[in-house]
Design a protein that fits this description.
The protein has 239 residues and is an alpha+beta fold. The chain has one domain (4-173): 2,3-Dihydroxybiphenyl 1,2-Dioxygenase, domain 1, CATH 3.10.180.10. The chain has helices spanning 15-26, 74-86, 138-148, 199-209; strands at 4-12, 29-32, 38-41, 49-54, 65-69, 90-91, 103-106, 112-115, 129-134, 152-156, 159-163, 170-173, 187-192, 212-213, 224-227, 233-236. The strands form two sheets. It has an eight-stranded mixed β-sheet with strand order 2-3-4-1-13-16-15-14, covered by helices on one side. An eight-stranded mixed β-sheet has the order 6-7-8-5-9-12-11-10, with helices on one face. It is globular, with a radius of gyration of 17 Å. It starts with a strand and ends with a strand.
């Protein structure tokens, strides 16, 4: 069976503090992560945990992945913004126009996210995390659709999106122009084969789909580090 998306892993200078921020924004419960660090567990159909791991690397430029958070009403959008600001977030300007309906914020470590306006039809069927919005090519959208066996739910003008058949957020790629990659991404996907699955067989399948093996200094770690066709790192865990 195909590997599962089991976690979105996040590099953080202070994993515990960043986990507290996002637990407050998302209203998810925190838990010890089996691989160390801190994790947040979804209370809904999101389908993956969020894992926070320590790093000393500085953030350079905008992240390749950010959250699009949905709003059930105009008041709910404002409540999410207010909650994030009270927890240590801030407003940021990434070039959005004054007439944009969404609000762009950053968490305490500068990671961007958007609070989407009420009535957004594209995310209407999704939960509070409406999308993992990614900078990426059409080719990489096709890769991840095949890798996860999630159907394409959007494929137009080189923009793509996929969504699990079980629900949860969409994963979207905005198409060109792509921002130049500046070092290791701060957020990456963790995949794992289903219980009893063969990690090496899954790695070979992903390589055949267009992934490449990369070395980020992981040494003899039990997980493998690969890159998708756009060069974005992801891990394949043994379980």
């Amino acid at each position: 069976m195909t590997a599962q998306l089991v976690a979105l892993s996040w590099d953080a200078h202070d994993p515990a503090a960043l986990a507290r921020f996002w637990a407050g924004v998302l209203r998810w419960e925190s838990a010890d992560d089996p691989r160390g660090g801190v994790a947040l567990l979804p209370p809904d159909d999101t389908g993956f945990r969020i894992r926070f791991q320590p790093t000393e690397a500085e953030k350079i430029g905008q992240n390749q992945i950010h959250f699009d958070l949905t709003s059930a009403s105009p008041d709910a959008q404002q409540a999410t913004v207010d909650r994030a600001l009270a927890l240590g977030g801030r407003h940021i300007d990434i070039g959005q126009g004054p007439d944009e309906g969404h609000v762009v914020l950053a968490d305490p470590e500068g990671n961007e996210f958007c609070v989407i306006e009420y009535g957004n039809k594209f995310l209407a069927e999704c939960g509070f995390i409406g999308a993992l919005s990614c900078d990426g090519s059409q080719k990489v959208g096709y890769f991840w659709s095949a890798a996860l066996e999630w159907p394409l739910v959007w494929d137009q003008d080189e923009e793509t999106a996929i969504r699990s058949p079980h629900g949860g957020p969409k994963i979207t790629w905005g198409g060109p122009p792509l921002a130049p990659k500046k070092g290791k991404n701060r957020l990456h996907f963790d995949l794992a084969p289903p219980a009893g699955g063969d990690q090496e067989a899954e790695i070979e399948r992903l390589l055949a789909l267009g992934a490449t093996r990369i070395d980020i200094g992981q040494g003899d770690a039990e997980w493998a580090v690969l890159a998708d066709p756009d060069g974005n790192e992801f891990c394949v865990l043994p379980w």
